Structures are given as structure tokens and as C-alpha cells.
Amino acid sequence: QVDALAEGTAGHGEVRVLLADPGPQAQLAVDRFAVRIAQSIAGMATGIGGLDHVVFSGGIGHPAPRLRARIITPLGRLGLTLAPGDNNAGATRIDAGSGPAIWNVAIDEERELAESALAWL
């Protein structure tokens, strides 16, 4: 889900729907969402003294190369650089080789949750 500001822009907050919508309101909502994620990454990097890795996964990060690019582009000052071909092809490692590693990892979140729950039983 996007944040309330982005959701108010497009009228809903489902990121996968927004990514597929070429309309200006949807794209503005996605841009706002990407900025908020980039700001969060920058804030975390500041708090821990830098970055070694950034990992995109799950239903939003893994299947969305344009969203990953929108998030990483403003983080260039932190040394994060995407390899566009690898990013667009859905490769596992998608950084340009200098700076922190950027990963695109497929994760079955529902299965992980179910296995964790079973482990507690």
C-alpha cells in the first residue's frame, strides 16, 4: 500500500494497480511513494553509518523494475547505482558494480509466514 498522501492523489493505494495505470494521478502517486521509500532508505543509511546492501523483495519490490529505478535513482549520492539491463531483466543482483549491492529477491511471503507459524505450534 502507498501512503495516505499518494493514495489521496490517485484515489486508491494498491501499488500494483498504480504501476499499471499510465494516468498522471497514478504516476504521481507512484512517484510520491518512491520518494518516501528513498527517504526511508537514506534515513536508515544515516542512522547506521552507510549501506552494504539494499534488497527489493515481495509483491511490490521484486516484480517492479520501474519502481526500483524510481527508488534508487535519487540515492546515487549514497553510491547506489542500478544496472538498467539487469534491473529490467529481473536479475538477482541489479547494481552497477560500484557501491552497495542491490538485490532483487523473489520471496513467497505467505509461505514464510505459514512456516514461521507452524514452527511456533
Calculate Rg over CA atoms. Answer: 15 Å
Distance between the termini: 30 Å
Shape: globular
Outline the biggest β-sheet: 2 strands, parallel
Kindly state the number of beta strands. 2
Mean pLDDT score: 88
Order of helical and strand elements: HHHEHHHEH
Contiguous low-pLDDT stretches (5 residues minimum) are: none
Number of helices: 7
**Share of β-strand residues:** 5-15%
> Percent helix among the residues?
55-70%
Could you give the order of strands across the largest sheet?
A: 1-2
Going by helix content, strand content and strand pairing, the class is mainly alpha
What does this 3D model show about the protein?
The protein is mainly α and 121 residues long. 56% of the residues lie in helices and 8% in strands. The protein is built from seven helices and two strands, in the order H-H-H-E-H-H-H-E-H. The protein has helices spanning 4-10, 15-20, 24-48, 58-61, 65-72, 84-89, 109-120; strands at 53-57, 101-105. It has a two-stranded parallel ribbon. The longest helix has 25 residues, at 24-48. The radius of gyration is 15 Å and the shape is globular.
